[in-house]
Design goal:
There is one protein chain. The N terminus is likely disordered. The chain has 187 residues and is mainly α. The protein is 78% helix and 0% strand. 19% of the residues are buried. The radius of gyration is 19 Å and the shape is flat.
Length: 187
């Protein structure tokens, strides 16, 4: 029984990591990139839980298969903690990409573990599950595109509502990038 409880706790940690990393990615893609306020309170406990998961002697299932991912998450969380504690927090350039990549894996782990519970009932639906997972990831990225576009539009309107063609080009380019990303995901 403790093993089931432990695995449930580990999966809750995966969900917390996913949500936290999405928050970090969104904040780092903002007009003025910065760390979310929650970094100072969430990163270290999440990193400690990662260490605990890695040190368990009875790791089975996704924990043993994803130990490299757990270590990458732990390293990123520790890095974010160090940055947050610094005098002048400065985000690394690739932080959004790293956070989104790790968040995608977290989502995959969470969905795979939920799927493994339903394997007896849904043996023939693996293609649909992968398609649903892919659709959710695209939605997450599309949400980030929308947030970025909204922020750029607001910045443009607050700074100079004069119809500067540069702003329109940036917004159009963002639409093109989003459409291209969606086409790639569908293929």
């Amino acid at each position: 029984m403790p093993r089931v409880s432990s695995q449930l706790s580990d999966l809750q940690w995966v969900k917390q990591v996913h949500d936290f990393l999405i928050e970090v990615a969104r904040a780092s893609l903002a007009d003025t990139p910065k760390l979310p306020d929650s970094v100072s309170t969430q990163a270290l406990p999440l990193a400690q839980k990662a260490q605990d998961i890695l040190q368990k002697s009875a790791n089975t299932g996704w924990q043993s298969e994803k130990s490299q991912w757990i270590e990458q998450v732990r390293q990123l969380l520790l890095e974010l903690s160090r940055i947050a504690l610094g005098e002048r927090p400065k985000l690394p350039e690739n932080i959004a990409q790293r956070a989104l990549t790790l968040a995608e894996t977290a989502q995959d782990i969470h969905e795979d573990s939920a799927d493994s519970e339903d394997d007896d009932d849904d043996a023939g639906d693996d293609g649909d599950d992968k398609e649903d997972a892919s659709r959710e990831i695209v939605l997450s990225v599309n949400d980030l595109f929308k947030h970025l576009k909204d922020r750029l539009t607001a910045e443009h309107q607050s700074n100079n509502g004069t119809g500067d063609p540069g702003w329109q080009q940036v917004l159009t380019l963002l639409d093109v990038v989003q459409d291209t990303y969606n086409r790639i995901q569908k293929s």
